[in-house]
């Protein structure tokens, strides 16, 4: 099985880390074409994020991680398997602060600079606008100021780059984040199914903690109200007469309040363990 991963950019390191958490460790630090992993049946292909959908579509790789925006731009026939929760951004149309353009409709007869030619073409066509698309490579914030375009279509995550370049958003075109995509035929492979299950388990475990404690049997109902868990806590009898061992999964951001409530009702010997993967 071949997994395609961005060779650089904002998605590269998080993608490598996600694979590591899913049990796929890259054996070399070199970003050459094909790199072995700790699993002899799996190799990683480093490629440009915008090329990955094409590699997946034509079968050069079985699965890959790239941005949803790149999938839309490529129009490649791939299956979007999972949203991965990182690399979130918006593709927006922006203009200089002092521009007379107030809405997308004001772009009719004007020019827009972007590296997302296909997205821009479809969007403008659907709005019935006649806009000249000026294709640029990479950042295009300067395009309006050097006179090659009246507006830009570009990615923004925090909006800082737009503000620094004295640009304002006219309209949001689409929201994007990192996605796991697959070749439709490759979805039948055992290794691909196993990888999807493992990555889904990692995503499920984000922000979750495993809580173990001993509680007197008489307060079990109170404990269940405090920590209902995914499908209710696991309860086991312990040798210490009237004591029960209770195991439950808890959201990490709720631990602060949960622990204090558990101590107050009489829970003790509380142990908190990070969860690596959670398979429902």
Structure explained in plain terms:
The protein contains eight helices and 15 strands. The protein folds into three domains: 2-88 and 177-204, Periplasmic binding protein-like II (D-Maltodextrin-Binding Protein, domain 2, 3-Layer(aba) Sandwich), CATH 3.40.190; 89-176, D-Maltodextrin-Binding Protein, domain 2; 207-274, Alpha-Beta Plaits. The relative contact order is 0.15. The strands form three sheets. Strands 2-3-1-4-11-5 form a six-stranded mixed β-sheet. Strands 8-7-9-6-10 form a five-stranded mixed β-sheet. A four-stranded antiparallel β-sheet has the order 13-14-12-15, covered by helices on one side. It is of the alpha/beta class. The two termini are 25 Å apart.
Global geometry: globular
How far apart are the termini?
25 Å
Return the average pLDDT rounded to an integer: 93
Number of helices: 8
CATH domain class of the largest domain? Alpha Beta
Question: What's the CATH superfamily of the largest domain, by name?
Answer: Periplasmic binding protein-like II
For the biggest sheet, the summary is:
6 strands, mixed
Return residue spans where pLDDT drops below 50 for at least 5 consecutive residues: none
> How helix-rich are the residues, as a percent range?
25-40%
**How large is the share of residues in beta strands?**
25-35%
CATH topology assignment of the largest domain:
D-Maltodextrin-Binding Protein, domain 2
């Amino acid at each position: 099985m071949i997994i395609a991963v961005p060779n650089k950019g904002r998605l590269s390191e998080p993608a490598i880390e996600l694979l590591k958490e899913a049990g796929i460790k890259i054996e070399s630090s070199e970003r050459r074409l094909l790199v072995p992993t700790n699993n002899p049946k799996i190799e990683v292909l480093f490629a440009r994020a915008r090329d990955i959908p094409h590699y997946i579509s034509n079968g050069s790789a079985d699965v890959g991680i790239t941005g949803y925006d790149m999938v839309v731009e490529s129009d490649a026939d791939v299956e979007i398997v999972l949203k991965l929760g990182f690399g979130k951004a918006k593709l927006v149309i922006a203009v200089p602060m002092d521009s007379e353009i107030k809405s997308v409709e004001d772009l009719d007869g004007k020019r827009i600079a972007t590296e997302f030619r296909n997205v821009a073409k479809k969007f403008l066509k659907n709005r019935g606008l006649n806009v000249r698309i000026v294709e640029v490579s990479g950042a295009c914030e300067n395009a309006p100021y050097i006179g090659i375009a009246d507006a830009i279509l570009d990615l923004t995550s925090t909006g800082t780059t737009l503000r620094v370049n004295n640009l304002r958003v006219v309209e949001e075109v689409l929201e994007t984040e990192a996605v796991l995509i697959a070749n439709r035929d490759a979805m039948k492979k055992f290794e691909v199914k196993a990888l999807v299950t493992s990555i889904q388990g990692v995503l499920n475990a984000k922000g979750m903690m495993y809580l173990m404690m001993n509680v007197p049997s008489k307060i079990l109902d109170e404990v269940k109200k405090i920590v209902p868990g995914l499908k209710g806590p696991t309860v086991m009898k312990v040798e210490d007469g009237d004591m029960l061992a209770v195991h439950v999964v808890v959201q990490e951001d709720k631990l602060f309040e949960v622990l204090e409530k558990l101590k107050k009702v009489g829970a003790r010997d509380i142990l908190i363990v990070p969860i690596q993967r959670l398979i429902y």
